[in-house]
Design goal:
- With 450 residues, the chain is mainly α.
- The chain has one domain.
- It is built from 17 helices and no strands.
- The longest helix is centred in the N-terminal third of the chain and has 37 residues.
- The protein is globular, with a radius of gyration of 21 Å.
Amino acid sequence: MKKVFKDKAFLSTLLMLAIPITLQSFITSSLNLVDTMMVGKLGETAISAVGLANQYMFVFTLCLMGINAGASVFMSQFWGGRDLKGIKTFLGIDLVVGLGASALFGGVAFFAPHIVMGILTSDPAVIVIGVIYLKIVAISCLFMGVTQAFSAALRSTEQTKAPMFASLIGVAVNVVLNWVLIFGKFGAPQMGVNGAAFATMIARLIEVIFIVSVVYCSKNKVAAKFNELMNFNMGTIKTYFKTSWSVIVNELIFSVGSAAYATAYAKISTDASATMQISTTIINMFFIFLTGIGFAAAIMIGNKIGAGEEDIAHQYASHVGKLTPLIGIILGIAMWFSAPSVVTLFNIKTETALAAIKVLRVMAVVMPLRTFNAIMIIGVFRGGGDTTYSMIVQAGTIWLYSVPLAFIGVLVFKLPVHIVFLLVCTEEIVKIPFELVRLKSGKWLKNVIA
């Protein structure tokens, strides 16, 4: 550990990249927290409806993140060699593939919301509210496709502030419009859950306008002309998908798995579903610190590989592996002691609040393990171009272990929600040996642009 803290170049670069990315993630998660808190004023049914509808949007968001992350593997390594042409080409691929996914997910949410909500819950009252919410937020999918592609290009070239400010503006707009439209302030109609949906859609529109304006008005290094964005052929697309398909599948596996857990919790009761929506929102607020470090590690490792400095990439990976469990312990302690206070922010029944505290304390205990596993997947292995191994580990542990365990706990043993969540979390123990073996082997380091 002493070597980690003595490596000033590593720590300064990690902090320079991680702090703005973490702030961006914190701002984005704050949007979800504020949404949940404001909608929470409308009761458990509204929380459950919006939470389950957002599980579908979560699947889309992680699919989009997979597409962006796959492109970032290339763009980070191109930036290591200062190849702007390559970066713009893969930004173009990112936009095309991302907008295709946005149209698909947005189309399903707009034209078939009943099917989506019917899969997630059998509660008619929850379905009615969730359907209307989904139809409105579906439009924001296209805005997110553009915003996230340009954000990925900016972060890959070590420009992390513009995406952070885009999220900050989006959250500010969302919070104000939530208050106005949900509760009918300043003469606006009192729209309830529908107001939250419109606020989210408008906020996403503002974000995309801001990020595109910043890139092109400032003539940023990633500001590409149309022909530069479309400067790819079938061979380039195959190269992209050869590395990226497993990143996209990995995110889909994780997000669909999360939706499966939500479905299992909903089968306990609507209150249990509300408990998990609140708990998950709070957990994500803590998890953002890991996201920032993971993305920063991926950029740093990718840059060093692209620059031909593979020894330093190995060294950075070792540093990250040693640093992240310590961060997990600190976060776990903070979560354990803050759980009762944070839960009081929500307008929920005493039983729901007590269950949420138990869930949060389960996560507090497993946080060091989850921290290590998450950073290996989204940081070290992905930055090194090794995307398939993590996908296989993720798929195996989620679908062959934790999802079946969740449904067995709910349907067979009729366990309370916090015990079911504990069963799900034991997946982190199963992952550890696989991640450690891969890290030590060095097989994760691959130059994808050579």
